[in-house]
Design goal:
- The structure is a homotetramer.
- Chain A has about 240 residues and is an all-alpha fold.
- Chain A is built from eleven helices and no strands.
- Chain A starts with 6 loop residues before the first helix and ends with a helix.
Chain lengths: ~240, ~240, ~240, ~240
């Protein structure tokens, strides 16, 4: 990748990464074509629940590293973690609103690709350049700009209200402010070429791993529709 | 220990533990007798710097545990960590105000007893009952009630102003509010006898380890005064 | 995936996963076509160095988990880690024998896909089902059966002797015995359907992530050949 | 402490630390006076079980540190961990042989002073100078020289056979060889004054913490004899 040493070029690189993702992703193409069903959306919410469960945790871990950290950055890590705490519950609530979850229903474990995303976020939070997790926050907090049109389409085609899509709507709103803070922090803590490279690498890699997770959901959905896997058959029984 | 199942009996047990500490501590006795010197205070600030460096970190680690946590408690852990971030710097600033620290001066590593305290706080934050670190916060946030008279004496005898004792003064003020939050949280998350026992054990043990640290500072101070150790001789050279 | 509850069906599933990998991998196809160059091999050894650096470490971490473990399994984890210690050095030695490394040359950081593999291996070693890392060992210790023909081709086409390919040759030999131990251990510790599923999932996922790493090396190699990236230009300068 | 830069002076310092311990320890004095009972020994075995549970684990963690380690030292950490695996079971077996443990009996949690020892060993294994845990191994592997006379007295006064004291006897034998390895390793990896200081500090501190643990067992024993605590009353009921 070319030298990225400013928020502008980082944004440029993000645009490009999203573009490729939109081009290659089986999941995003399917959604774009308006074919989303309640079940696909439910399967997306389940994986969202799984990785979101860990987001506040791995965010906070950055601030617990033993080396000396910029105090503002360390504080940001903890405050940001505090704000993200419990957000996984929104995903479950939205599932519940769809009639596809009840307290006590046992949720299938994360898909392998979701586990890979989770593992990567912990690793880059705990090891390597402490500033690099900002690369994940950078795209995650601004993703609504890219996927909101898609999400509008999903909620319309499923006939969902804002109150039924708390995870997406709440995040879109909360995250505008977060997004500004993340950008401010990147500018503050990235001092060397290596810092910018590490942030860029984590941005690109974590977005691609999220893409892999989405495609894996799509593949599972096809198996579900073909009745060739019973991993998600509990969803059918809840509806029945 | 008898069954402690309320904040009242916890407070009672804390009173008793402080009483024993005041009775047995060589450090506290020495301070009480008004014999504190700039150097003893400096040595206390150095160890304070060392363990405080880790407090926000180990506090946040409680919230990063993989098991499901009460969301309010998890959020409290991160917020509390955010508020404690960088407080170690206050200890260094106070040292600087005493003329006993300059940027670039290499600080001796923590005393073994300080390392033991740090190790214990990490362990109980990361392992065992997730609520138990509240036992440390419980006494740490309310310690000013117990040691303020002593500290007033120190600052008076050293002729220090409030502005020169930011660590103690700032903490005394911030921590009134924290103290209320900690008590609220203990009441919220302690549901079983075991929870109360674990909080009580950590309260008592971490306070005693802090006492050991203080006595260890006192012992070092005697060696310093007798010129039988050169661990802190840099303090003399800064004054000279 | 169908229910895998025996070494036979695990082997079957591994055959299938390798088959798919051989079918889809740009790297493996290129190698198969006899097009390997010294530079491609060097780039492969560099990434091998990076993930092998962590293998003994994450293997041992399984045995350090706080929960009670089967003692034989725990001991196996430590012994296996002891045997893998320092193997990353073999990759560097082989590089040196190719004239593509000297003590003191700064090695580029791992490729993102290598970091993803490393992150995943740490995660599954430290979290989730403690037996699941055996799924990685299972394919890694037996991979020579699958890739040896390919490797023979590589060494022939590069004119390398056995002494120049210590990483591969040594592993092929050591790992026959390891492979038996790993199979014995899987049979010993997998007691439930979930155990077998977790081992199978880690086997498949870690092999696929290794495939991603290899394709990423291939992509980097094309950029290197096109002079469109200078990440590996130090290799050229060593040869010049 | 004076400069310790050789095994000889380390041994000298260890002699002195043991001497002080023998002088101050309420537990050791009581044992020396031949007053040991089955119950005191049982309480000692219970705490031994608790900290030994973690010894192989924290030993192995040294070898999993992310920084580059001397390969021989790293291998030693894993091999040593393999050899210590499951030794906590010996303590339970010895308890069983005394008629003071049955499978299924719930063991009380570690005493606070035992937790402090455990916490310290994890901390110094995972943080700070990677060579420093050798300071713990150094005294632990050679402790039989110091405490064997005492232990002989205990086993005689309780009428125990070698087969009933597997933990102590087995360790005394295994550890002669370990002791040689530990000394070799200290000589190999300690290169600077700081290395020797760190090993010495961990040696002294971990031995003192073990002393604190023993005195804490003694205090508990008095409470048990006075019926002022029911923490160990299950021992009485097993005998009754």
């Amino acid at each position: 990748m070319n030298e990225i040493m400013s928020l502008e070029s980082l944004k440029c690189h993000l645009d490009k990464t999203w573009e490729e993702l939109f081009h290659h992703s089986r999941f995003l193409r399917f959604v774009k074509e308006g074919k989303t069903t309640k079940f696909l959306y439910a399967m997306y919410l389940l994986e969202t629940y799984h990785y979101t469960y860990h987001n506040a945790r791995n965010q906070a871990l950055v601030g617990t590293r033993k080396e000396e950290l910029d105090f503002q950055y360390q504080k940001f890590c903890f405050q940001h973690a505090a704000e993200e705490t419990g957000h996984e519950q929104m995903a479950l609530n939205d599932l519940k609103n769809l009639g596809l979850y009840n307290e006590g229903v046992e949720i299938p474990p994360p898909l392998p690709q979701t586990t890979v995303l989770i593992a990567y976020l912990y690793w880059i939070s705990q090891h390597g350049n402490p500033v690099q997790r900002l690369g994940y926050s950078y795209w995650a907090e601004s993703c609504y700009e890219y996927i909101m049109p898609l999400m509008d389409q999903v909620t319309r085609s499923l006939g969902l209200t804002r109150a039924q899509t708390t995870f997406l709507v709440a995040h879109a709103e909360i995250d505008k402010e977060h997004s500004r803070q993340v950008q401010h922090m990147i500018n503050r803590v990235c001092k060397t070429t290596r810092d910018w490279q590490d942030v860029t690498e984590v941005m690109e890699t974590s977005l691609k791993l999220t893409g892999n997770m989405m495609d894996s959901i799509y593949d599972q959905y096809l198996e579900f529709e073909n009745h060739s896997s019973d991993r998600y058959s509990f969803l059918r029984s809840l509806v029945a």
